[in-house]
Amino acid sequence: MLSISYFCCVNLNINILRRITPRWVVFSIDICISFLSLVLAYYLRFNFSIPAKETDALPFVILVVLSIRAISFFIGKTYAGMVRFTGTKDIIRILSVLFAGSVVLLLMNFLNLKINNKYLIPISVLIIDFFITTFVLSFSRLLLKNIFMEFNNPKRESDNVLIYGSGELAVITKKAFDRSSKTKFRVVGFIDHHVKLKGSKIDGVKVYHLNSLKKILEEKKISVMIISDKGVSVTRKNYVIETCLSRDVEIKTIPNVSAWINGEFNLNQLKNVRIEDLLERAEIKMDKEGIRKTLISKTILVTGAAGSIGSEIVRQLTYFMPKKIILFDIAESPLYDIELEIHEKCNFNDIEIIIGDIRNEELVERVFSEYKPDYVYHAAAYKHVPMMENHPAEAISTNVKGTKIMADASLRHEVKKFVMVSTDKAVNPTNVMGASKRIAEIYIQSLCNNSHTKFITTRFGNVLGSNGSVIPRFRKQIEAGGPVTVTHPDVTRFFMTIPEACQLVLEAGNMGNGGEIFIFDMGESVKIIHLAQKMISLSGLKPGKDIQIKVTGLRPGEKLYEELLANKENTVPTYHSQIMIAQVRQYEAAVVKREVENLIATGKEGDKFDIVRKMKEIVPEFISKNSVFEVLDNKE
User: Fold this and answer.
1) What is the set of domains in the chain, with CATH numbers?
2) Is the N end or the C end of the chain the one with fewer CB atoms within 10 Å?
3) CB 365 within 8 A of CB 354
4) 201 near 207, Cβ under 8 Å?
């Protein structure tokens, strides 16, 4: 009972002390320490037997030394720092102030030698006093800091933290935990893949090898893993994340140094690992010099420039220093946002904003006539499968007619290259959206013969985090408490990050000679239900317990599995390991033009079944799935 009362009294006293201790108390304690250090320095210098002549002069020496210390403490503000938050900068300040004061005392000593022919203070005493005072002032602050942390964050109440990495960022992360008096977490180890660091200690904490991760997670009962190493390979990062998720260990990362507040990192800035980190792949190697030589001082037009892909293409184009980038989009607010971003973050001012519709032939003609673009990146399109299944006339109007208008204008104005962003849904299409993109592919391919303009198609799957994609939708559902909706337990998709996809678009556009359909290495397909489960786990919740997963059934036109090549297509490799050329059948330009114009005319009449029937005539492999248009595939 007495021990409990004693603990409570001590804890109460510390809490009162930290709230009411004024600066003059710290200043007074520092002066007392300086006094005791000076006396101790004399005793050490003279083997605890101070001569009479030194004893007689000691009161005056104490007065001089304490006066100099007081003035230096006042000027250096050593008393102003909060003791419980003492850090490296505070210790350096104390060292600097004491050193400056000792230098002043040394100069006074030499002055006294000149005047009175004797030292005021023995030089050895000054040196000993400097080291004792520095040690005691620093040690006392650090001791009080640790006592404060012990009472406010006792180990028995801590959750154990493991930090991946052993570099400077790992140490900074550990110190951030040490500084925080309110956190209930305690760093119990570092883990790293470097064999040489195994068994060593950093800041008093042991370093373990990555091979023992599973063992350490269980033995140390780790609650949180912090990934501090920004250079960790994708493979190792995935291994760490997957291993932690399988053991219900929360995973956090630290932000980039540029995002730190006033150049310092604190625990409030820790971020959850995102699903994009799990699906991330090795960095794409680009022929940046080749692309730069092609695009430097050129005028480039980007359609759909406010969208996910279009805006990232614009960001990346700024790196290659074109003469001008024309941002063409119908979405006013997103276009304004990307304009500000390009000015402020990319520090690129040679842009022109065009608010308008690619289906407006007069506007498109004015843009080409006025700005005379050398290159066109065509990313504008309707992309939502269920929406276009219900509005086939709009799919034809934008994805086919809009592409035709842009491509025809590029021909008339002798644009060097026209690069179209297509989709894997154009392969063996099962929906209106995919079929409309395939028809757009066919049209621009047919323009390549005897053309000054090189028409190039890039085809890839889903991009992580794009507008309307599954990941932002899952994220909103998780934040709302669920359920997370999946259309089918077996549905799979290919995924690629937005920057990754746009890098490959620029690379393929640079290497294209006209007529190619470039397909990208999308890696392994991902089961959407597994994606949902991992996103829930990364949010610190348990699938099926905290957040339910609900199967809603396939949407109109939706496939179970996406493809990058049609059945009759093969690929030809390029110099880039992640880019291939699809070998597709050739089309006669006159026939394609006639068929596309008829389709556009049919679209204006607005009958859904007539439009889709015409699309199926142009793209025979278009077989509707889970759609009202399946009746059109009935051969009887």
Assistant:
1) 19-152 (no CATH), 155-273 (3.40.50.720), 297-303+372-496+512-629 (3.40.50.720)
2) C
3) no
4) yes
How far from 552 is each of 391, 474, 488, CA to CA, in Å?
22, 14, 7
Distance CA 345, CA 535 (A): 30
pLDDT in tens, 204-263: 788 888 888 888 888 888 888 888 877 777 788 888 888 888 888 888 887 766 556 555
Q: Are 465 and 472 in contact (CB under 8 A)?
A: yes
Contact 270, 226 (CB under 8 A): yes
Interatomic CA distance for residues 542 and 537, integer angstroms: 6
Question: Hey, which residues does 456 pair with through a beta bridge?
Answer: 419
pLDDT digits (tens, 9 = 90+) for 186-199: 888 888 888 777 77
Cα distance between residue 558 and residue 434, in whole Å: 10
Give exposure, 433-457, as e/b (b: 16+ Cβ within 10 Å).
Answer: bbbbbbbbbbbbbbbbeebebbbbb
Cα 530 to Cα 272, 289, 491, 493, distances in angstroms: 18, 39, 10, 11
Alpha-carbon distance of 196 to 210, in angstroms, equals 12
State the Cα–Cα distance between residues 143 and 150, nearest whole angstrom.
Answer: 10
Q: Quick one: which of 333, 338, 330 has its CA closest to 363? A: 330
> Parallel, antiparallel, or unpaired: how do β-strands 484-486 and 159-164 relate?
unpaired
Q: Tabulate helix, strand, coil % of the chain (nearest 5).
A: 55, 15, 30
Residue of higher predicted confidence among 568 and 215: 215
Q: How far is 158 from 179, CA to CA, in rounded Å?
A: 15
Neighbours of 535 (CB within 10 A): 22
The pLDDT tens digits for 381-434 are: 998 888 999 999 999 999 999 999 999 999 999 999 999 999 888 888 999 999
